[in-house]
Amino acid sequence: MADLDRPLTDGLADALERVAAAHPGCDLSDPGTPSATVAILRHKYGVLEHLVLADSPIVFDGPDGHTVITDLRVDDVLPELRAEVESHQTHTSGHREALQRLVLAQRQVRNTPEGYWVAASRPDAAQHALTGTTPLRGIRSAAVMSDGVSRLVTEYGTATWADVFKTLQADGPRELIETVRKTEATDPTGIRWPRYKSGDDATVAYCQW
After folding, report:
1. pLDDT tens for residues 114-148?
2. Do the bridges between strand 47-53 and strand 65-69 make them parallel or antiparallel, or are there none, so unpaired?
3. Sign of the four-CA dihedral 25, 27, 33, 38
4. pLDDT tens digits for 44-102?
5. Three-state DSSP class for residue 36
6. Mean pLDDT of the chain
7. Which of 60, 101, 172, 183 has its CA 20 to 30 A from that of 149?
8. Contacts of 17 (CB under 8 A, 6+ apart)
């Protein structure tokens, strides 16, 4: 990624290949091979390059408001099973069983043309990422985050992107994550906001210019 003349997709493909090569004793063809979303933001010659693979968004705070870049193709896969999971309260046997059925079904279509793409053991997944550039001029700040943070706006509706950036500017990522956790604590079993589990991993990186 430090080579500014190299596409982000190539850099990600190399990273996936190197991680896979570091685990020769593992069956990386197994559908259950560990995977992760990817969101990359790189400053290059007066523009901001982005790469997003799966649902970890990048949000720009610019002159025209807030621009969100995310990859929600996974939401179009197996909608009936997703709805079944969300019909149960978290921490119940019905929820666990429905979630297991969804996860098993997702594994069969993950990183296939019929499904969705995510970073796992196949380097070619990088070529299916969403990429683009944004002129740096006018961009005040940007946040790269997991969907465990962005859902404060997109799913819970308890904050706006302006609120998110105000918190990041004043108190930093830790306070924003604490806000997410406090919000989720008011609905521990997913009655108000149906979801896979009571709280997803929450990470965020914040940059200002």
Report:
1. 899 999 999 999 999 999 999 999 899 999 999 99
2. unpaired
3. positive
4. 999 999 999 999 999 999 988 999 999 999 888 899 998 999 899 988 999 999 999 99
5. strand
6. 93
7. 101
8. 123
Residues 6+ apart with CB under 8 A from 4: 42, 44, 45
Question: Taking every pair of C-alpha atoms in the chain, what is the biggest distance, in angstroms?
Answer: 53
Give the 3-state secondary structure of residue 78: coil
> Which residue carries 């020769």 as its tokens?
24
Q: What is the pTM of this model?
A: 0.90
DSSP output for 68-87: EE---GGGGSSHHHHHHHHT
Handedness of CA 12, 14, 17, 21 (dihedral sign): negative
Could you tell me the CA-to-CA distances from 11 to 16, 29, 57, 148 in Å, in that order?
A: 9, 22, 19, 25
Radius of gyration from C-alpha coordinates of the chain: 18
199 pLDDT above the threshold of 80: no
Helix (H, G, I), strand (E, B) or coil at 7: coil
Q: How many other C-beta atoms are found inside a 10 Å radius of the C-beta of residue 27?
A: 9
What pLDDT does 198 receive? 67
d(CA 49, CA 36): 20
C-alpha to C-alpha distance for 141 and 194, rounded to whole angstroms: 31
